[in-house]
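User: Predict the complex with adenosine monophosphate.
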Amino acid sequence: MHLLDFSELQLNPLLLEALEAAGYKTPTPIQSQAIPQLLKGRDLLGIAQTGTGKTAAFSLPILHQMSLNPLTVRPWHTRALILAPTRELAIQIFENLKVYGAPLQYRFSCIFGGVNQEKQVSEMKSGVEVLVATPGRFLDLKNQGYIKLDQTEFFVLDEADRMLDMGFIVDIKKIIAALPLKRQNLLFSATMPTDIASLAQTQLVNPVKVEVTPQATTVERIDQKILFVESSKKSALLCDILREELVSHVLVFSRTKRGADRLVSELKRDGVACDAIHGNKTQAAREKTLSRFRSGQVKVLIATDIAARGIDVDGISHVINFDLPDEPESYVHRIGRTARAGKEGTALSFCSATELAQLHAIEKAIRFKIPVDISHQYHTRGAVVGRPQAVSIFGEITEKTQLQKTKVLAEVVSQTTNLHPKAPKGIEIKSPKPVGVKMPTNLGALRPSRRVIRPAAMVPNHPKTPSR
Ligand code: AMP
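Assistant: Here is the predicted structure with adenosine monophosphate placed in the model:
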């Protein structure tokens, strides 16, 4: 069954209002399959990845059922517990919940480690309707007596397979053991390893099984490229790209708010009309910026992940990852901002020596090796071996870039001559120059193959970088 309209789901009108305000028109496949069953109170086993709309698929029926049965939540209690493996995912769910649940005026809280617990404890003091948490900090606060589960009617375990990978399975079992027996259970996982299958079998009561493949079609329509570049040259490379004619409506992702502001100043200095949206801007300022971007007054919008979540703008020609995200899901979310409504789009990702581990994690998650564009003047030679090559964003490959490519190839061959003594004919082999770039500490995951050119080789390909 695929529903065409949210109104067919018989949800609380306040929730429908919130969805309309968020610009959601049609339920995604997981939403149309899961929501009707969840509204009947069934347990659910969802085989789905982030990016399929699963957050709304579980949040909407929970919020709806709560609204049908209003209750006073006691101090330290919560009516719904959502467990997520990482702080980023927990925040993302929390942000979505606030969007969907805003008109119901419920209290939501998000609990994760690595920060002071005071604010989290004070939010729990009056009780909350929905608590989103990562397992470690959740158990910590629960053991201190700051979280009580007697009123918990809904339990969601999100990304269960990742919980397993991250070693949370014992914590999860402890948490489940502390939940009331009468509750609705929802378990989501992208894959079904044995441990998760047996958890599902023992914890879910006659569950409905809903399986959806990620919206690969969108990702497939996106022309993805990776550009190896030193951190200090990223702004210059961005300016070069923005000068290209076909780059019309660009969303640039920056990891930090400060980074976003710095980029705005640098681009403006270069005469590029741009603006930033991030958490430090007021809602009114964000709305204003978005409408200027929508109308084309501003060609380039710089955003942080959280601020970009609500961006629903058609016709974005390019998404540029100025920094690679730490979470592979964020990469999928980010690039999904282009190629909307059946259109094509381009996603360019800048990758410096210290970001190779993130690139590796992204490629593992999307099961695709992103082609590398080597034709820009800031190209560094890191990790190009075994990587498909992209068509240049800077038009045709010129004689100069061809020469550059040949040089890279020669370098690659010379660095692997111990493994392959025969070099292709016609290529002059030189010994690689020793370089003094320090090996980043987070690259252990990238070492399985001897053929990978290590980041020590990530030096500029151009003889002399133009100063800016
Ligand atoms: P999720 O898989 O829940 O992380 O959702 C992926 C993205 O799709 C999020 O940015 C949501 O805001 C968005 N989304 C979820 N459901 C819909 C929908 N029915 N229509 C449009 N966007 C949606």
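The chain has 17 helices and 13 strands.
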